[in-house]
């Protein structure tokens, strides 16, 4: 019998990110508590830039953006928001979008699988994803459950289960 396998990846749905950003921008434009604060949310490439005239308004705009991410089913682990910083008369927050599993995280997941998953399960790092294989599909299901509960700083998806 051939080995069954699946891939552990960390991907972002770009369309959903755009939709969440646009919804946040529209809400900020319409809300009374953001009136005359110059609060703006802009998406450009892998960065979301939040600008406002004070630090607490910028943090409130970030909170609106995070709530839109959650409503659209996007993990907050994909949004790496920096600290607010002053730029002229406004305060800015740069939030980077995290995609892909970096090498230290992949090694951490690999070690977790080796230590705690059923013994028939093998894993190997392939670029920015992790391939997990075993003869038993039940062992793979148990490994998925183990990885879902793992405390890592990236959002994990499980694809190509065959």
Could you explain the architecture of this structure?
There is one protein chain. The chain is of the alpha+beta class. It has 2 domains: 4-11 and 101-159, Alpha-Beta Plaits (2-Layer Sandwich), CATH 3.30.70; 14-97, Alpha-Beta Plaits. 37% of the residues lie in helices and 28% in strands. It contains 4 helices and 9 strands. The chain has helices at residues 14-30, 55-71, 103-116, 137-148; strands spanning 4-9, 40-44, 47-52, 79-81, 85-87, 90-97, 122-126, 129-134, 157-159. The strands form 2 sheets. Strands 2, 3, 4, 5 and 6 form a 5-stranded antiparallel sheet that branches. Strand 7 and strand 8 form a beta hairpin. Helix 1 packs across helix 2 (55-71). The longest helix is centred in the N-terminal third of the chain and has 17 residues, at 14-30.
Brief account:
The chain is of the alpha+beta class. A hairpin with a 2-residue loop joins strand 7 and strand 8. About 25% of the residues are buried.
- Overall helicity: 25-40%
Distance between the termini: 13 Å
Alpha carbon gyration radius: 20 Å
Beta fraction of the residues?
25-35%
Query: Low-confidence segments, ≥5 residues, pLDDT <50?
Result: none
Number of domains: 2
* Count of runs of 4 or more consecutive helical residues: 4
The name CATH uses for the topology of the largest domain is Alpha-Beta Plaits
Q: What is the CATH superfamily of the largest domain?
A: YajQ-like, domain 2
């Amino acid at each position: 019998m051939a080995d069954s396998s699946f891939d552990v990846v960390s991907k972002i749905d770009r369309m959903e990110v755009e939709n969440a950003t646009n919804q946040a921008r529209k809400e900020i434009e319409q809300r009374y508590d953001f009136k005359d604060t110059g609060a703006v949310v802009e998406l450009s490439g892998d960065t979301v830039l939040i600008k406002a005239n004070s630090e607490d308004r910028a943090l409130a705009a970030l909170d609106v953006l995070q709530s839109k991410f959650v409503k659209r089913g996007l993990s907050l682990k994909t949004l790496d928001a920096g600290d607010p910083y002053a730029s002229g008369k406004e305060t800015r927050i740069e939030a980077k979008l995290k995609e892909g599993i970096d090498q230290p995280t992949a090694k951490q997941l690999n070690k977790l699988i080796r230590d705690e998953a059923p013994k028939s399960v093998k894993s190997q790092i392939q670029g920015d994803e992790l391939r997990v294989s075993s003869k038993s599909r039940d062992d793979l299901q148990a490994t998925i459950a183990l990885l879902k509960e793992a405390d890592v700083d990236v959002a994990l998806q499980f694809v190509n289960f065959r």
